[in-house]
Write a structure and sequence with these properties.
Elements lengths: L6 E3 L5 E3 L37 E10 L9 E5 L25 E5 L5 E7 L4 E2 L5 E2 L2 E7 L4 E8 L21 E2 L13 E4 L2 E3 L3
Bound molecules: fe (ii) ion.
């Protein structure tokens, strides 16, 4: 299943995209890291080696409900490493940190509302309450008017069926992207996820 911007119609017959649903910020918003500005979480600035894990490209557009691109929107992303560990002092998960992965970046959409970043697929992890969270990437998106906090999930993960944050949504599939094979100019073995984000007004 490919994540797409769902289209609705208003009374006048004008296409209206469905707003991307919000999710909680969660406890691991970075407090000790500075965001990487190079859109390459799989090899952060200053790292000699690649991060461990499944190489993943995430790309999409930020749009308004009427389908207009949102240029120069600020996006922050943060995520666990491939072992499910956040680089955060409150993360008590005994899984190891990856010296080549910090998991925090800041991006800006281009003039057509597009964004893209290179990362590794995050691992699943257990909450202190013992609930297993599916792999996900946290997003905040700030347009000129709107601010959205959400999470991106991946198709085919068994925990997607039970995760209470994802399943708190009427349409959880709105936040689930399928993993596609890479185009020829990207590394073999990488995968690609498309995630369009719709803000109310931009
Ligand atoms: Fe998380």
């Amino acid at each position: 299943m490919r994540q797409t911007s769902r289209t609705q119609m208003n009374a006048g017959g004008t296409p209206r995209l469905a707003i991307t649903p919000p999710q909680i910020v969660g406890p691991f918003y970075p407090v000790t890291e500075r965001p990487d500005l190079a859109a390459n979480l799989a090899r952060p600035s200053g790292s000699a080696d690649e991060a461990r894990g499944q190489l993943l490209y995430v790309r999409g557009r930020v749009l308004t409900r009427s389908g207009e691109p949102v240029p120069h929107a600020r996006i922050e992303i943060w995520q666990a490493n491939a072992a499910g560990k956040y680089r955060h002092p409150s993360d008590t998960n005994p899984a190891p940190l990856d010296p080549n992965f910090r998991g925090f970046a800041q991006l800006t959409t281009d003039g057509a509302g597009r964004y893209a970043f290179r990362t590794i697929k995050p691992g699943r992890y257990s909450t202190p309450e013992g609930e297993m969270r599916p792999p996900h990437i946290h997003f905040t998106v700030e347009g000129r008017i709107d601010r959205l906090v959400t999470q991106l999930y991946f198709a085919g993960e068994p925990e997607n069926q039970t995760d209470r944050w994802l399943n708190s949504l009427a349409q959880p599939e709105r936040l689930i992207a399928s993993l596609q094979a890479p185009p020829s100019h990207l590394e073999m073995g990488a995968c690609v996820a498309q995630f369009d984000i719709v803000l109310p007004s931009g």
